[in-house]
Specification:
Length: 316
């Protein structure tokens, strides 16, 4: 107990669940009410163990493959917010599974972009992380995998080669670093001046808001803590953003119960946020635990985002 130590806690203005995550979780909850247990979910509905474990307790079974679901089951299978390829949807139909698509509408927008671009005979550059489920699902929208080429870093742009008259466009993963992506896009435009870009940035509003909030706070604090998951792209990007903009110590907090709060005694000002796949209640839990050790002053001016994606009518 270090109650004699005062720590100023600066909480990011934008944090916690985005509208796409809210919608996906609501779809799982409403499926439980409508169909009973079990409800199957292919892949983690969102990349957050706290959320996943909570849903497991309610009767949700998470699987990585449709082959893991018992044959002839009447239970529904829900596709995660990250989206899936056309092949996965076709497999669900072939297996006669009751499948429900909880893909974030902003990811679905990119899926439609890929479909349209391929139909218009474009070669598509996909900026993203190779093994992320969103990227796998987006690439899987192309009927011919040769029509979409993955770029993860600026060095990959140097290796891109297209025929002289080939039409080229790019799309991006929704949860990338807005700062890293800017430099990759610049490299693509420098090499291919006629490249077609999305009418509106593919990086989602929540990702941008959370990164810009962290950017501002990182200049004011001694250390920064991001509540999220190691396999969550948007969580990891927030840690990187805090480091990039001045916070010498930036740490991902996956399990608050295991966090070393004693280590914070050397800091006067700390930054705190929750990624787009981490619930607001984890911010509150972190602060409650912090109060057990220190006298704290909270600096919090949360800004509501007022974005809502409705669940399909058949679940209401």
């Amino acid at each position: 107990m270090e109650k004699s130590i005062n720590i100023n806690v600066h909480v990011a203005e934008y944090r916690g669940f985005c509208a796409g995550v809210d919608r996906a979780i609501e779809m799982v909850e409403k499926s439980l009410l409508k169909y009973g247990t079990p409800v199957y979910v292919r892949h983690e509905i969102v990349h957050n163990k706290y959320v996943v474990e909570g849903l497991k307790k309610k009767g949700v079974i998470f699987v990585e493959s449709l082959a893991d679901i018992p044959k002839n089951t009447k239970a529904p299978v829900i596709f995660s917010a990250h989206g899936v390829s056309k092949k996965v949807i076709q497999s669900a139909k072939n297996l006669k599974l009751l499948h429900i698509d909880a893909t974030c509408p902003l990811v679905s927008k990119i899926h439609r972009e890929v479909e349209t671009l391929e139909k218009d005979e474009f070669k598509i550059i996909m900026i993203g992380h190779k093994y992320h489920p969103e990227v796998i699902g987006t690439i899987g929208q192309a009927n011919n995998s040769k029509n979409i080429i993955l770029v993860e870093k600026i060095e990959d742009v140097k290796n891109l080669q297209f025929n002289k008259n080939q039409k080229i466009a790019y799309v991006t993963q929704t949860t990338l670093s807005i700062f890293d992506t800017e430099s990759i896009v610049k490299a693509i435009k420098d090499k291919f001046p006629n490249v077609v870009e999305p009418k509106k940035s593919d990086i989602c509003y929540a990702t941008s808001n959370r990164q810009l909030s962290v950017q501002e706070l990182a200049k004011k604090v001694d250390s920064f803590y991001v509540i999220g998951a190691n396999n969550s792209s948007n969580s990891v990007r927030l840690v990187e953003t805090a480091k990039l903009f001045g916070s010498k110590i930036s740490q991902l907090v996956e399990n608050i119960d295991d966090f070393d709060f004693i280590s914070l005694k050397k800091f006067k000002n700390i930054g705190l946020t929750a990624s787009a796949s981490a619930p607001e209640e984890l911010i509150k839990k972190f602060i409650i635990k912090l109060r057990e050790h220190y006298t704290i002053t909270i600096n919090d001016q949360k800004i509501p985002e007022n974005v809502k994606f409705n669940v399909p009518n058949f679940l209401n």
